[in-house]
Amino acid sequence: MRRREPHRRVAGELESAVLGVLWDADGPLTPGQTQLALAGDGLELAYTSVATTLARLHGKGLLDRTAAGRGHAYAPAAAAAAEIADRMRGLLGDGRGRAVVLSHFVAGLTPDDEATLLSLLAAAENAPHGSGGTESGGSHESGWSGPGGTRESGPR
């Protein structure tokens, strides 16, 4: 059995970091701009690693790509947040271990994530039935508009 090397990232961690940087950006970013933003978050990565990750996310339909000089600039696709939320629900499953998995998930939340989740749960509780928990016109400080996984996006 192979052991995971201590410096190796958890599967999906780099993709999540890249998506986070792009969601926080005011518009599409080139691979070089994405690399700089990731470095600002403490992730020192080779340009090729960032470019490959962006291309893979585009291939999965999670990023939109536009021409930028001789290369491309990337921005989250409109359906990216919903797609990731669907994957999370799929991983959670319907089985008997659901509560155990959720408890481990909640135990691993950062204080900011916990505050965001509590805010989203409160909004869902107060939302009119049939709205899917999303508030029209409203937005939370985190940029998420509701537990349905939609995110307010900045100007592109």
What does this structure look like?
The chain has 156 residues and is mainly alpha-helical. It is 47% helix and 8% strand. The protein has two domains: 13-76, Winged helix-like DNA-binding domain superfamily/Winged helix DNA-binding domain (Arc Repressor Mutant, subunit A), CATH 1.10.10.10; 78-156, no CATH class. Strands 1-2 form a two-stranded antiparallel sheet. A hairpin with a 2-residue loop joins β1 (63-68) and β2 (71-76). The chain starts with 12 loop residues before the first helix and ends in a 30-residue tail after the last helix.
Sum this structure up briefly.
Helices cover 47% and strands 8% of the residues. It is mainly α and 156 residues long. The chain has a two-stranded antiparallel ribbon with strand order 1-2.
